[in-house]
Design goal:
Number of helices: 10
Helix content: 55-70%
Order of helices and strands: HHHEHHEHHHHH
Strand content: under 5%
Strand order of the largest sheet: 1-2
Number of strands: 2
Largest sheet: 2 strands, antiparallel
């Protein structure tokens, strides 16, 4: 039979744990597998990261500095999420660099903007990665059957075909995923997709790679602007 002191300590442990869950601090100094395991944990991590930036009192940091701050909260947090958020922030903020790939992520980014894009790139981590791959696949498939004599600019009809193919590929990947994929409300996702494919600048370049990158970034940008997860 357990002693009263043992029962009390166990009860206190449970009380402390659930208080940490309620306050969101349960994700501090935990491994990435735990942090990304539930939607609540992901949002709590972003909130605590935002608090850390506020206490740090720096209005802007380089991506590597953001990553080092995140490592203080979780040592095995993947850099890929930070990299995606930084690339999206650079795109939305209009930071264009003619530097080698390794030097591109060395620009200081406003912390308020970075947190917004980090939130989307982490909360919708699986969806964002899938969307990037499916957009490339949809464009490449269309390019294989596209007559070379056509104008380098994509017509509205072609964009509609590519969009429909992308949606089909994305839905298939989500349904086949072995892990739970966080997906925004259907209306939010549909609006983000429509905005990405209808953007006027989309038809300004003939490069398939540039097309797919542009659509991916526009999709992620729209998700960030429309994101209402609580």
């Amino acid at each position: 039979m357990k002693s009263d002191s043992t029962a009390t300590s166990q009860a206190q442990f449970l009380l402390d744990y659930f208080n940490a869950v309620i306050s969101g601090t349960n994700i501090l100094h935990r491994d990435f597998a735990y942090i990304q395991s539930t939607p609540r944990n992901r949002l709590s991590f972003v909130t605590e990261f935002s608090h850390l930036l506020t206490s740090n009192r720096q209005e802007s940091c380089k991506p590597a500095d953001y990553f080092h701050l995140i490592e203080l909260m979780s040592q095995d947090f993947p850099y890929e999420v930070v990299k995606r958020a930084a690339e999206l922030a650079e795109y939305v903020l209009g930071i264009q660099q003619q530097q080698p790939e390794k030097a591109k992520l060395g620009v200081a980014l406003p912390s308020k903007s970075f947190v917004v894009f980090f939130r989307v790139c982490f909360y919708y981590m699986e969806l964002v990665a899938m969307a990037e791959q499916c957009i490339v696949a949809a464009f490449e498939e269309h390019q294989r059957v596209r007559p070379h004599a056509l104008s380098p600019n994509y017509s509205h009809e072609e964009l509609r075909t590519i969009r429909d193919n992308f949606v089909a590929l994305l839905n298939e990947d989500i349904s086949k995923s072995s892990t739970v994929v966080q997906v925004p409300p259907a209306r939010t996702l549909q609006t983000s997709i429509d905005r990405a494919f209808s953007a006027g600048a989309l038809r300004a370049t003939a490069s398939t790679g540039a097309f797919s990158t542009f659509v991916y970034l526009e999709l992620a940008r729209s998700l960030a602007m429309l994101d209402v997860v609580e």
